[in-house]
Amino acid sequence: MLNRLANETSPYLLQHKDNPVDWYPWGEEAFARARTGDKPVFLSVGYSSCHWCHVMEKESFEDPEIAALLNENFVSVKVDREERPDVDAIYMRAVQGMTGQGGWPMSVFLTPDGEPFYAGTYFPPRRQSGMPSFRDILAAVLEAYRERRDDVRAAGDKVVAYLESQNRPAVAAHELSAGVMNAAYRALAATFDAEHGGFGSAPKFPQPLVDEFLLHYWHRMGEVRAIAMAEITANMMARGGIYDQLGGGFHRYATDPAWQIPHFEKMLYDNALLGTLNLHMWQATGKDLFRRVTEETLAYVEREMLHPSGAFYSSQDADSEGEEGKFFVWDAAEVDRLLRPELSRVARAYYAITDEGNFEGRNVLSTPLADEEVAGRLDLPVEELREALREVRTRLWEAREKRVRPNTDDKAITSWNALMLKAFAEAGSALPNRAFVRVAERNAEFIVGSLLSDGRLSHTWRASDGGGRAKIDGYLEDYACVVDGLLTLYEATFDYRWVTQAVEFAGRMIDLFWDAEEEAFFDTAGHADRQAGDRKLLVVRPRNVFDSSYPSGASTAALALLRLAVFTGEKEFERYAVRSLLSVYGLMGSVPSAVPRWLAALDFHLSKVKEIVVIGPREDPATQRLLGVVYDRYLPNKVVAGAETPPEKPPSPLLEGRIPIGGQPTAYVCEDYRCTLPSTEPEGLAAQLGFRVRS
Hints:
This protein is of the alpha+beta class. The chain has 4 domains: 4-167, Glutaredoxin (3-Layer(aba) Sandwich); 179-320 and 409-606, Glycosyltransferase (Alpha/alpha barrel), CATH 1.50.10; 328-402, Arc Repressor Mutant, subunit A (Orthogonal Bundle); 610-689. It has 26 helices and 22 strands. Strands 1-3-2-4-5 form a 5-stranded mixed sheet, with helices on both faces. Strands 13, 14, 15 and 16 form a 4-stranded antiparallel sheet that branches. A 4-stranded mixed sheet has the order 20-19-21-22, sandwiched between helices. Strand 14 and strand 15 form a beta hairpin. The model has no long low-confidence stretch (mean pLDDT 94).
């Protein structure tokens, strides 16, 4: 028999529709049932590509005895954290406050009013390694709820008070200065892993936003160690097993300090941010490795994560055929069978393949040595090695394509789509690759065509038999990421309608999520919102300012509004951004790894932003040469405006009075809308930007 999740759109919730647990989706029905029956709520939060979520489902939620305990004594609610980031954020903060750690699956016990009073993550079906069994937990929680109700209420009240205190903006600064960036850099340098890159030990997660701040700091201060830290990290990840050496794209994280053994799920947001980081590393260093990784990562997304509508899928599982990583790993003997001896020798040397393996007797491919070093060890010319590698990759790829693939979570999340839109648009401009720009354009058309209704964005969308189904009103992160992505798409296309659309979304974002009393953005809309009934189920109105695996909605909003103010000349957008920056200024120097996008926004605000205007047909080779100069080097604090021909009524102050000189495509470099002499030659433009054209 199907349970109440059968009518949901989330692939994660649908994975649980056949469980014997009488699951409810998040909503008033579940909490009304808890109040009527005087039962505690068991809240289980996860996502479709979460390995341990699958484990707990098989061990506990498919067990008839455990299901009977839950059905008789609890109201069980299943939530997809990607679909409901507000619910996830509130209760994850509660779990971390109650236990000192967090993760998924997240298991929280609530009163019928939604107040958490006991929490944890994964619980095994039987006691093991000092962990209580899930059955033991259920019995203890039920006993406490029935026999010690006052203690339960007191615990819930205490947690809610903690959550409310965490949501209040910190004491605001009175002014912004660059000094906090120095403190942030020193704090990051003190925890840097100089041998392997990244920060801390295992498990080691990519932190592309931190590396982006290091590039900002290097560009501002000329601090060589800052770019060295970012480069070591990007290089080690690109050569390690965390990067899919055959198919492109990054896995979620590494289980070891050296980035060799990954947790194999692939997330859309990771690949958007890491693709962009590698693009910026190529601009900063000129090294081909980073360009190749950018191209391969976006090619992977276009090949495997793109719906015909233009939407990007959310993630791919770590597991296939019930085994973690089975799709990606290799037996040495299998490689020997697939390749003739001379090619097997090359594959073993290049991909560090051994008979013993590095992952449960099999091999996660990595490329620890440069081509020249491998060629030297094999006594081969470098070009001969590279020719052999092309055949090796083709044969291994063809063999891997015959395997059972990991499942794909095919829902589209608006904010993640916008992050990837931005990655494709910027890479398309810089590499240059107009096919990448066209992918970004299709995604933007999808967002405004399928995710926009009555002026409001939806948070998720999933294809269905009838076309597509959008669900849940958008959050701050959705609006902020879309505004930022559309501005980058304008830079890649010179189509000003994307700026116009960004202005509309920015206005709606401020109306919905800005709290005038607190002078800060919140993640969910105010109580006057049309989903007010649903929002009242939340014990607090969430406000997350921390940048974790992807940037917070608030930090993205700040940066996007600063950029939008430059494009439009509307200073009001800048004022909202500055007030938002002031509210978190104290965190920037003390916990920089938690607020790197804020630091990047601060750097943009305090810099003399380069306003680069190009007038000329986008496909004209002369225009492309000028744009090639703009994107050839790392220039973090710039905006690029352009038009095919001088507009009669310039939609932006950046375009006022900008005309082609001598009928040639022409570039202007401006600051605060004041420009230097126009340039029609790449060398002149490069000189105005402070560097020489790369050979």
